[in-house]
Amino acid sequence: MYAKGKKGELIAERYMLNRGYQVHFRNKRVGRNEIDLICEKDGAIIFVEVKARTGNSLLKPFESVNRTKQNKILRVADDVAVRHFPDHNYRFDIISIVFRKDKFDIEHIKNAFTAEIANR
């Protein structure tokens, strides 16, 4: 499971870089919470959660980003936004990867969920 997740994160990072995103942070932690990628494009900061599964899974990877997971992402995003990007727009994306034998399918869900970043 861990190896698949790391492979998925590397694929997602390459995907974002190939589409003109700048990657600021990988696996950014605040306390026990983490965001997989923090990117920037066109002046906006994009907090990216990467989910990877095998093709025989019943759920699509993005379906595991429930409200609990979103709240954990928001805790990190709030801290990072205040410390590093106070005057930016933000969005929350999910990159969903399904591995199938020697191939994979990738889906980039922009604005997967919304939230307010606290202004301190």
CATH topology: Trna Endonuclease, Chain: A, domain 1
H/E element sequence: HEEEHEE
Separate helix tally: 2
Alpha carbon gap, first and last residue? 38 Å
CATH architecture: 3-Layer(aba) Sandwich
Mean pLDDT across the residues is 89
CATH class: Alpha Beta
Largest sheet: 5 strands, mixed
- Tell me the strand order in the biggest sheet: 1-2-3-4-5
- How large, in whole angstroms, is the Cα Rg? 14 Å
User: How much strand?
Assistant: 35-45%
Shape: globular
Low-confidence runs (pLDDT<50, min 5 residues)? none
Helical amount: 25-40%
Structural class: alpha+beta
Task: Give an overview of the whole structure.
This protein is α+β, with helices and mostly antiparallel strands and 120 residues long. It has a single domain (2-113), classed as Trna Endonuclease, Chain: A, domain 1 (3-Layer(aba) Sandwich), CATH 3.40.1350. Helices cover 29% and strands 43% of the residues. The chain has two helices and five strands; from the N terminus they run H-E-E-E-H-E-E. The chain has helices at residues 2-18, 67-84; strands spanning 22-30, 33-41, 44-54, 89-100, 103-113. A five-stranded mixed sheet has the order 1-2-3-4-5, with helices on both faces. The longest helix is centred in the middle third of the chain and has 18 residues, at 67-84. The protein is globular and about 45 Å long. The chain starts with a helix and ends in a 7-residue tail after the last strand. The mean pLDDT is 89.
